[in-house]
Amino acid sequence: MELLKQKILLEGTVLNEKVLKVDSFLNHQLDPVLTMQIGAEFARRFEDCTVDKILTIESSGIAVALATAVKLNVPLVFARKKRSLLMSEEAYTTEVYSYTKQETNHITVLKKFLPAGEKVLIIDDFLASGAAASGLAVLARQAGCEITGIGIVIEKSFQGGAAKLRQAGYRVESLVRIGSLKDGKVTFL
Amino acid sequence: MELLKQKILLEGTVLNEKVLKVDSFLNHQLDPVLTMQIGAEFARRFEDCTVDKILTIESSGIAVALATAVKLNVPLVFARKKRSLLMSEEAYTTEVYSYTKQETNHITVLKKFLPAGEKVLIIDDFLASGAAASGLAVLARQAGCEITGIGIVIEKSFQGGAAKLRQAGYRVESLVRIGSLKDGKVTFL
Fold first, then answer.
1. Which chain B residue has the Cα nearest residue A20?
2. Nearest C-alpha of chain A: how many angstroms from B189?
3. Where xanthine is bound, by residue (chains A, B) (predicted)?
């Protein structure tokens, strides 16, 4: 997605060889026009598939997942990283380690929102080691859902998560694939 | 907002006299059509104002804030409840207690995303005691921003937060106002 590449080159900051900061448009401040275009692009890439529901994880996945849900006209569910007092019902849960937060979360979706047999499209902002996307796939499989595919805004291909998910048979559609962040520079694949 | 009232009566669950659960369309599963209509309604209510930026808080505020940002064509910023490794820059921060999570968070926005003088519209899903909205207002005031108003999807008027904010001089626009959750029943104002 050319527009996204330009935005990354213009506004992204390479913090180190592993971390690209895009907080001006993707995960702290959001550009609504770009966000809706990202949703439209995911919808286009998966237009040959049946999608009953979008599955994402709080917080940075929500905006791009909503933009996709609007285009595909299907509901979205976001996994919670922390159970609230209101989530007393039966839930699917699994552990996900966050590198940027340096913590392990039990991510959770209430069972009633993932009926067996539904075709689920997983959407997230970043794919690095693949922990979050794999965790969401675990929840969907626990539920007996079919995973249509995984849509990622920015894939850091050099961290191996995308390759692992593709080897496991998932269709991973990344809008931008980054081959390296060496020497403070973003190199796209 | 009549549509939202109908949705609450149809799908909401009164857990006790203080808590209304609307996780099927507002804060766990999201209905994309309704979400965009909520954004359009906020845009309509504040159409007489200048808005430079939407300010909300993760996670449940993000979707409705994005829908509003799309309609008003302005960026949105969501306050983080937890600082990540990537938020090393200077930030505005304040304490907010969450009743449903039973924890105090230091909510944070990077200074660069709240320039002094900007006109900020605060958006959130619920207003009960007003802790979250007040916290966001504190951040905006720390930044020297002007607060255009506060847009709330569901105001639980009987918990006093909305009255407190209105007394403090803020324009609070709530799409639905709930007067009571007594006897397992939602009573609108």
1. B86
2. 24
3. 20, 27, 156
**Beta strand A146-156 with A172-180: parallel, antiparallel or unpaired?**
parallel
- Nearest residue in chain B measured CA to CA from A72: B32
Cβ(B187)–Cβ(B178) below 8 Å: yes
pLDDT digits (tens, 9 = 90+) for B11-32: 999 999 999 999 999 999 999 9
Q: Collect all residues of chain A within an 8 Å Cβ-Cβ radius of residue B78.
A: 28, 30, 59
Q: How far apart are CA B24 and CA B12, in angstroms?
A: 8
Inter-chain CB proximity B86 and A33 less than 8 Å: no
- B102 interaction partners in chain A (CB closer than 8 Å): 85
Kindly identify which residue of chain B lies nearest to residue A114, measuring between CA atoms: B29
> Which residue among B33, B36, B75 sits closest to A31, beta carbon to beta carbon?
B75
A49, A149 in Cβ contact below 8 A?
yes
Do the chains contact at B85 and A74, CB–CB below 8 Å? no
The per-residue pLDDT of chain B, averaged, comes to 96
The 10s digit of each residue's pLDDT in B116-154 is 999 999 999 999 999 999 999 999 999 999 999 999 999
Smallest CA-to-CA distance from A72 within A95, A49, A92 is with A49
Beta-bridge partner residues of A121: A54, A149
Confidence band, pLDDT 50/70/90 cuts, at residue B95: very high
Contact criterion met (CB below 8 Å) for A149 and A171 = yes
A2-29 b/e with 16+ CB inside 10 Å = b?
Answer: eebbebbeeebebeeeebbbbbbbbbbb
Which ipTM did the prediction report?
0.96
Extents of the domains making up chain A: 2-188
